[in-house]
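## retry 2 of 3
previous attempt timed out at serialization; input unchanged, resubmitting
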Amino acid sequence: MASSPTADIIVRDARDDEAEAVADLVRELAEGEAVESGVDAAQVLAYRDHPGSGVLVAELDGRPAGALTYFMRPGLFHGGSWGYVDELIVTASARGRGVGEALLLEALRRFQAAGCAEAAVSTTFGNDPATALYRKHGFADDALFLERHF
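## retry succeeded, writing output
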C-alpha cells in the first residue's frame, strides 16, 4: 500500500466489486471533457487484468474518491520499459485533498519498482491542476501526443 500525502487516503489495487465505481469515475472525467465514454465494469476488469496494466483506487472517508489506470510496456528508445499513466481521475468532491497526488506517487513507485526507464502522462489542454501536479513530480514537456478517434 502506498504512503500518501494525506494520512486518511488509502491507495490500493481496485477490487472486482469496485469496477462499476471506477467506470463511473471515467464517465465523470469524460463528461468534464464534454465527450461520451462507453466504459463499463467489464472493461475496467479487462483493463486491470491485462498483463502490465493496473487500476488503482484512492479511498477517502471509506469510499473510492479517485482512480488511476496505468500500463507498463517494453520500450526501445531508452533501452528499457516505460510506464504510462493512462487516466488519473479524482471525483469533484475530493479535489484539492491530495487524492491525485497519492495515486500518482503510487503509480510512480510501481514504475520504478518494475525497472521502468521513464514514465509518461498526457492531459488535456487547459487542465492546469493536473499539469501542475505532473510538473511537481518531475514530468516535463518532452513530446507531442496526438490522438485520432474512431
